[in-house]
Amino acid sequence: MLNRTLGLALGVAMGLGALPAQAQEFTFRLAHYLPPMHNMAANVLPGWAERINEQSDGRIQIEIYPAGQLLQVDEIFDGVQAGVADIGWSMPGATPGRFPVMSVLELPFLFNEAENASQVLMEVYESGQMDAEFDGVKVLYLHTHAAGSLNTIPRVETLEDLQGLRMRFPSPAARMMLDQLGAQPVGVPAPQAYESLERGVLDGVAFPFDAMQGLRLGEQVNYHIDWPTYVLTFYLVMNENSFNALPEDLQQIIMDNSGMQEAIAVGRAWDESEISGRAYVQELGNEIYTLPEDEAERWVAAVMPGIDAFLEETEARGIPAREIYENAAARAQELAGE
Question: Is the dihedral of CA 143, 165, 68, 80 positive or negative?
Fold first, then answer.
């Protein structure tokens, strides 16, 4: 009986030993600053996290912390570096001066569509010209929104109408543009723009149509000048230790859902939300209009000296800013013609 019992125990032990070891699971925290109803927060980032979860057979879980719950917009990059969050999505415009090459690509008159702009942005990144800016993190992808325009409470038809209007700016490049146009640039985080308009702190905002719906700003403005000018750049980055802790197969899944093609797809999603944003403000009864050609030329002429000064200041930091700007403009025209 004793020999039979020992034999059974040995058999069970050998059987258990033959089973594969349980696959290690990883849970990552993703921080961003957008409210939950915005398309990026409601669809793009959750969809990305779900894809990775499915492709990893549940071994990678990504918990999303929206609306600054974990880190504020200007804390996200440092928070990812420090490991407070494993992954972060935010914008360079929240930390002026820290991303000089990214800032050059936010200057006016380069792009209209987010899809093409995101491709050019990634091409510049892949050339190595942004390595210093993203030192200490794993870049998953970079992208832009569609070209932003001016959205105002009072109707603006001429440069003179814009003088002194308090306009929210999202980046150093957009601030320069508004200043050159004679407006009064005001720094307000995107989630606070609605309240600032409602309280009369702002007369208008520089945003794409996407934000009119995603942040409900269309409820607080009346007029939209269809004059696409600047884009805002964004990054999705990961803590290097968190990425390196993954086995190679899971690292590959992360990278299969990152890089150039993911950036282009995200840019395309922003372009699509631009269409729905336009429809949204029209349903509200707001007016979308274009500037007469001669007036638009006045506005461009007013901004150009600011662009030149911005490029000169950036070149003083040892960055070939004018070359980057001119190459990006040529590449954008090339992509628009394809």
Answer: positive
Q: What is the pTM of this model?
A: 0.92
Q: How far apart are CA 31 and CA 41, in angstroms?
A: 10
| CATH of span 27-96+114-145+233-274 | 3.40.190.170
184-199 pLDDT, tens digit per residue, is 999 999 999 999 999 9
The per-residue pLDDT for 17 is 42
Whole-number pLDDT of residue 22: 54
Output Rg (C-alpha) for the chain, integer angstroms: 24
148-231+284-336 belongs to which CATH class?
A: alpha beta
Amino acid at 29: R
Mean pLDDT over the full length of the chain? 94
Q: What residues does each domain of the chain span?
A: 27-96+114-145+233-274, 148-231+284-336
Output phi, psi for 43, to 5 deg: -130, -50
Report d(CA 101, CA 326) in Å as an integer: 13
What's the pLDDT score for residue 18?
Answer: 40
Alpha helices in 199-320 (DSSP H): 209-214, 240-244, 248-256, 259-283, 293-315
CA dihedral 105, 109, 115, 117 (to 10 degrees): -20
